[in-house]
Amino acid sequence: MNFIQKNSKSQYNFFFLFLILILINFSNLKANSQTLLNKNEYDCLKSLLTNFGSINKVKINTTSLEYLFCGTLEFSLPNIQIICNEGSVSQLSVGQANLTYTVTDDFSCFKNMTQLSVNNIVYDKDIFYNSYPPNAKEFSFDGTNLVYGSISPIIKTFYSTSVQTIPTIIKFSWYLNTTKIFLVPRVNFKGFFLVSFDNDLDGSKNWDCSITINSLNVPSLNFITGGISLELMPDYDQSSWRNITSFGGMGFISLRTSDLTSFPLEFSNLRSEVLNSIYIEIPFLPVSSKIDLSLIGKSMKLLSFFNTKNFTFGGSFPIILPSNEEFKKLEFVNGNIETFDFSLFTNVETLSLKSNLMSNDFPSSFNRSIHRKLKQLDISNNRMTGTIDDSFCQIEIIVTNNSMTGPIPNCFTCFFGLPEINLEKNFIGNNFINLNTPSSPSIIIPNIVFNNITTIEGYPVILYEYLIFGENLGGNWVPSNVVSDSVGTQIVFSMIEPNRLFKLLCIGEPKFPLKLSYSKSNPNYTFTLSLDTPPQLNIVDWQSSTTDLVIDGSFFTYNSSIINIKIGNESCLATNSNFYQIKCTLSNFINQSLEDIISYITIGNLTTQFTLNPGVINTILNCTENYNDCNGNGYCLSDIGKCQCDSTHQGDDCSIPYNECLNDCNNVGQCNNQTGICLCPITPFEWIGNDCSIPLHTISAVSPSDTNGGYASIYGWFGNIHIDQQVFIGNKQCIPIYNRSESEINCESPPGTGLKSVSVIQNSINVTSKDIYQYYSNDKQCPNHCTSTSNGICNTTTGYCNCIGRWSGYDCSLYSNPSGGGGSDNGGLPGSNTTIDSNTGNTNITNQQTNYQILITKLIEIDFNGNQINEYLLLNKWSIISNNSKTVYTFIQSIQNDQCNITYTIEEINKDRDVTFAGINFKLTSGSVKMTVSIENYQYSSNLNTLQLQMKSSVNEIQTNEENDCNDDQIEINSTPNQDNSLNYIAIKKDAKVLNGRFIDRIESDGISTFMQTVLISKSNDSIIVGMNLPHCTKKCLLDPDFSVLISPEFIGECSDGRKSWFLPVVIAIPIGGVAAIIAAAIIIYKKRFVEIPLKRKLKSFGSYKN
What we know:
It is a single chain. The protein contains six helices and 76 strands.
């Protein structure tokens, strides 16, 4: 990581080296803990050391008398080192004492060996080089006058240290499969390593290798990549420098020799796309022209010259530096440069010219536009004179041991006297006047800003990067651990630009504020850093009759130049500041009688507003947690800590807009004072318009005229504004309008017949109630003329029959069957039993073999087009609230968050009685069941919507031993529909049992009688569901169906087989339009009788039936 400075690098390197040593030792301990070798390798090693004359250096187990090879470590010559792993020798280093023995394939038996090192052995070259251990990756070969040759391709690392007094040529092709070779002399004296290298590669394969060699020539490196460290032996072939141009494949080049050498001009022709560093330690002769390395390659980063002696160009620097942007560092150390020409070094970041002979004046100033990359300059141990200008605070300088004078800039002396840094060492050995006079740390001005978040692939950490900028921050000599937080986050501090810009790299998100501590012993060198936090004020001390203010708080700055304070209209100039305190002086005297002066403090781009009272100590209470100046929509009264919002905002922090509504929503709607929009009510009455002034009217009931037309009343809610009001019955206008109010319109209905819709138009709004206006007739006919004058008498006013005696039904053609009846008192008919489930509200009617259920299942809200808007499931959700004498049951349930109540009452009729509902008079006979449903305060989604209440009737057969074959008959369905009648009669006859239903087509809507229509929803084999379409009842819808049980005169009391037949009479109540539902019920009974029981009763046949 390039952001870690030099000091920390050495610490990290030491740590990793220490860790590696621990791991190696641990590995060795683990390996040597296995002391038992397999027999083959034991025998092989025993034979080898015996032949080498070294077996006596191995310890023996005194019990088993076996050699303890593993772990043997003997440094005295001939040396022995044996490391084992899992029963095999893994590493072996061995020397030969018995020089009469010739080594051939002695090492090939070690199948698991990875490292082999041999020293001073006598060997057969042809056999030895082809008989390595089969898995050896590293081979070390030491001795005298070694005979080199091609090594096994499995060897990746080859080491050789030798004395070669015989001229030797080593070919690169012998090591083509290695990745690292190391061939050096034991002693570096003339004549002790007569080795040259020959590049005999044919180019069929590039050799990528790290090469460290000593040689008598500069070898060609064609077809070779990697890096090379080349030390040329005394009296080397200087003409071989022509091969330097072949070094382009190297990433690193190190060249050394002690021979005085003319600088090879071929060096200027070296070109490389991968070469990044060159290290040269050669005593070159002076050059007559500069060596141009400007085009050496785009990857060049480091150029180092050490001990070059007279390598100069007329006493000045002899090189034209690389021009590529990546070039960073030049070192020219222990040379003879006499003049420091600063203009030659414009493309480096780090420049070291220490230990030369430079004696001219130090540059008068530093110009960043010229030396745009320079960060560090080291000219120590020269003879430089002159002074250091403050402009050099932009870089880190080391001028130790020169002849310089004058003052050292404060950007450096502010860190003097700190033992942790010891910055004085960079300036000692001169004649500076302030070397021993540290300056104040108050000129150190740090600021911090967030920069980036990054991750490291493969590691579960997030790196948070921040930049610390400002003035006099220090250089590379600042330790990397000077920044910390309160929770111990790992933070590395590294220089980007001396004294001005540093980078913080945090492993995980740090906890602010941070502490920047240059010294552990001197608290004046500890600075607090905050991130994007506005100034927080605690106390402002404004002494009476003064212009000086002291502001205490936090999250201030050390940089007074970026502080802007306004007290009212007057500026207060910051004279001194740190993280916790600011001192400022007013530009003019302020009237001491003023109160709550609106004031601002801005640091950088962060502002806090507060109020002050002159001449006192002000305690500042913040109005908002984030010190956001009441969001700019008011001002903070600091003495009470509350925001004073402007006329267009509201809330504790003035963040909520405030807008008045038009006409205060007409005192009908609710004003949203954030948007200025009225929320108009939709229940119980709906209003519209910008100020809720327009009523959105509803129609809940009508009182129609007869077919000749005449006076009609439309009920509902129409508000108190009736602009251009019109009423239509169907498509004909109801005119004139006699009277109008909020709840009723009276008009002259046109003649008509049948069922019509009603439309009311006013205020440009049209509201229609579908199929609610039913014209009535003044002369009504009774169904079937009441059968006969003996059965009943027709009431032409109401259109239904008044039955005589036991006759009953819609046309007086059936016998009544009181509940609980049966036996001789009821003509031998079995009685029906009605039960009410007090837990569910379900009604059950049973008679011998059959059980019927009547259920209320759901309530649906429907829009004008017949689409379902809301659905409420009612089944099994009823709660009983009363039970009078076991004959009247009342249930209730609530919907719409308890805003709407539905009440359901069931009554068993024990005595005949006359009743009136919705203006209709009718008779309830003993044994019938009367139901009442009330829906109160339903909340509609729209004033055009209506409701539908759904009921379900189902039948199931109770198996008994009784049979009624003599009463078997097919289903007959008889109905006498009359759209002018208020009552509907439907009879279903089966097996002399009749289901007779009466359902009134009226409903009380908000207390007004009006028409109601019923439709078939669905049917199955054993049930039907019907829906009652209700008008738009605003307050209350009231329904009142009833059910009765009747018997056909065709009923046979006793069948011919002597067995008594029992009949089940059941009545189901169905509204107008529900004929299809009754048909479905008849089909259910038919299937039960003729499909499910045929095997039991062995029916001969049964015919088809008509619908």
